[in-house]
Every structure is written in structure tokens, then in C-alpha cells.
Amino acid sequence: MAYRTALSYRFGLSQLIMVTPMFLELPKTKLLKVLLRELKWGKNAGGGTLFININERANLVKAARVLGADVTVKTVREVRVRDLLLMGRVVIEKGALERLLQKYGVKDGSSRGNALRRDPIREYERLAKLL
Predict the structure, then answer these.
(1) Full domain range(s) for residue 21
(2) Domain count, the chain
(3) Which among 18, 55, 62, 130 has the fewest CB atoms less than 10 Å away?
(4) How far is it, in rounded angstroms, from Cα 8 to Cα 125?
(5) Among positive and negative, which fits the CA dihedral 107, 21, 74, 17?
């Protein structure tokens, strides 16, 4: 339930960004730095960015290490609820989001007796299927 709530929170604030696995494959720290600056994804501009990948991306990890507090990179197996809430936004690969939703995603809703009226994760699941 905590993962679902954290993902819903980020989605509701438009701070959950889904990308393709090819995103940031180039081994250039400068490209990541420019991206963070232009999109205002740095720590000072918006709280920093958490990148969640399905598999480890060595180039992204190296670039993030150089940039320090602006960027955190985790694989889907490493990410915890605290990570989802700590940074200003979450950039997640489609496969990683699908894996999180599969493991922690939206259930029937009737099991709790008080289902949400508008469930952002259910909407995001619908949008993810269109890609």
C-alpha cells in the first residue's frame, strides 16, 4: 500500500515521468547536467531527480555520481518507498514502472471497503498500455 500511495502522490503532482530504456544511454555527464538544468530537475530548482531503471545503467550511474545530490539512480529492485518520496521527481523506465505496478500496484479496491474515487495509478496504468 505504501508503494502505491507514493506512486499515486508523485503522479498526482505530475512528478512521475515515464521514459524508454534508451533514455540517457550516452556516457556523457555534460548531457545529464544540461538536461537537469534545462528541465529544472536539479536539487535547487525542484528537489532533485530519482531515476529508476529496470537494470543498472552504468553510464547513468557514473554521471549521477559526478553530479552528486541532484541525481539518485536506483534499479527497481533497490528502490524503497522513502526513495520515491525523497526527491523532487521520479523518472522511471516503462518496464520498471510496470514491475512496480505488478508487485505493488492497484488491487480491486473492494478489499479495503473504501476504494479511492479517482485512482491516479489506475489512470497511469491505462496510459502506460498506450505506449
Answers:
(1) 2-130
(2) 1
(3) 130
(4) 11
(5) negative
Cβ 125 vs Cβ 7: under 8 Å: no
110 vs 40: CA distance, rounded Å: 40
Query: Where does the chain show beta strands of DSSP type E?
Result: 16-19, 49-53, 71-75, 89-93
pTM (2 d.p.): 0.74
Which grid cell sits at 107?
488491487
Q: What CATH number is associated with residue 99? A: 3.40.1370.10
